[in-house]
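Example record for the data management plan.
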Amino acid sequence: MSDQASQETLLHEPVVHDIIELEDVGLSPEQLLEGADNYTADNIKVLKGLDGVRKRPGMYLQGGTGIDGFHQLVTEIIDNAIDEGLAGFADTVTVTIHKDESVSVGDNGRGFPVDAMASEGGRPAVEVTFTDLHAGGKFDDGAYKVSGGLHGVGAKVVNALSLFLQVDIRKGKDLYRIGFSSGELTEPLHIIGENKLGRNGSIITFKPDPAVFKDIVTHWEYSRIRRRLRELAFLTGGIKIILTDEREGHQKTETFHEKGGVGAYAKSLTGESPLLYDTPIMFKGMVDDIEVEVGFVHTTKYDYTLVAYANMITNRDGGTHMTGFRTAFTRVMNQYTKAKNLLKQGAISPTGDDWLEGLHCVISVKLGDPQFESNAKIKLLNPEAQGAVNAVVGEKLTEFLEENPKLGKALVEKAADAARARDAARKAKDLVRRVNPLDNDFMAGKLADCQSQDPAESELLLVEGNSAGGTAKGARDRKFQAVLPLRGKVLNVEKATLGQILKNTEIRSMIAAIGAGLQGTGDNQHFDLSNIRYHKIVIMTDADVDGSHISVLLMTFFYRFMRPIIEAGYLYIAQPPLFKLSVGRKHEYLYDEAALQARLLEVGDKSSISIQRYKGLGEMNPEQLWETTLDPERRVMRHVGIQDVLDATEVFKDLMGNDVAPRRAFIEENATFARIDVLN
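Corresponding structural encoding:
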């Protein structure tokens, strides 16, 4: 059976099985310099087995001990099961969330090996797999043709960070079981019955240790697991994946069996956008033992999405396989256009970005030894992957265009429209030049710019409402904080046309103030991150439902039309407090009702308490707004980032699209209840 397959958890790969860690010797820097001779072997601490994983989980677990790391545990085990399918030994994977928040992952593959390993003192292979770092089937070239990683730590990390972990194995005529707790063997491998199913397989059941994940509620998010399983169903193109939730009030079972593969995946990325053609285009080929799959479809709109995977690992920053696709696609389309004389004399020739307009594409490669830019695996580096994708796409796309001339002409016309749009969009160029944005008539009286001309230290505060905007202008530090008030709710760009977007006053104001341009206008060169005027763009809305809605509207705009700003880490959401709690002459600010109730329990004399609830930023005076929301030394802000394109695309489609049902389901699943304004 495999070990880790999809996303690499090892942030700093140890070179030995045991971790050596320095103890705190309790001396000041001066004392350390003076008493270096006191540093001896007694100060060295050796952590045996999986102790190092529990001691420093962040070194091994992508996402650390937060909510992302919590869900990474089940991802590790799921990926192992999927690897059995990729190797051709399994066609079904099951994932079950139990009532007690434990989870089981099963497959009908070969089953973990149960025979003894002479090199490990006769211990069963399955025990070694779950307890010894860097032990697993991924190191044997014959066990798995492809896998997500060869470090052999995935299953061990899950075992070490689980309150309990149990493995049931169907092997031959017998049913075996082995159990662990916090990485320690508690139930040696033994036969518990007969394998009545008559086929091999494994089921791993585990429950994360609350002592490790103490900073979060150890509650599985069904939607998060569902999205990953749906993604895997697309990428495997045939493996059946069954997800069951047994928890009270959540009982449901879903089956994912996406035979359409990466083509169906590409179509799912289009959301509700109208398609240029109904059936996705798919190419598949093998070059030097590298398997290449590409699926894409065009919409009639202007945005585009490229998603790349290596061995089913999401490569957020693309890499050589994505470069190979873009190079081949641009080359073939240019050659086809010229050979068929499809552009009129004097017409503007499409650029590489013009060819991508409206394209939603999934690129998947499977190779034996993937190399990544970092252990987070956000970018593939293998040069042979670029050559393989280039060759497959070049050959298959050329053949496709010759066989489908009508569709080929439509693709050329769309790219030609994009090229013409670059010229037509010149009128918007004044919006994005790095000149004084106050020169624009519609900006007069809106933007209160900062004094600094250094983007690295400058902030743009996007403030909900003119009243709060006025308060923010009085509260800010003029040296580095600029304020742009936004009136009313911003246009929902998920449903709007490009013409509506460019005519919207609030959006035009943001484009002008930010200064980097706008993506997806048919002039992708029109967006230049180097021209951005602020390296912190802060969304400031009221701490109520309307404020949250405005935040989502703004995030939708940035995701669809200024995504590089999010990818660069420049977008934030301010967190204004909900309450001001005064006890005598002292006061403090609290950010949610739970914190308020907890604080009230700590205060003895209730008669000296006064509570003020802020229903909007405009209720604060400038001093309070600075103290709670604008002062870099004291404020609380949330950093907006993108972890997964499919995840983000589906969330925005569900929340902001035309279909009501997914939005209602999202609200019902994520709603929390609070006693608003009911204070004792």
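Summary line stored alongside the record: The first strand starts at residue 19 and ends at 22.
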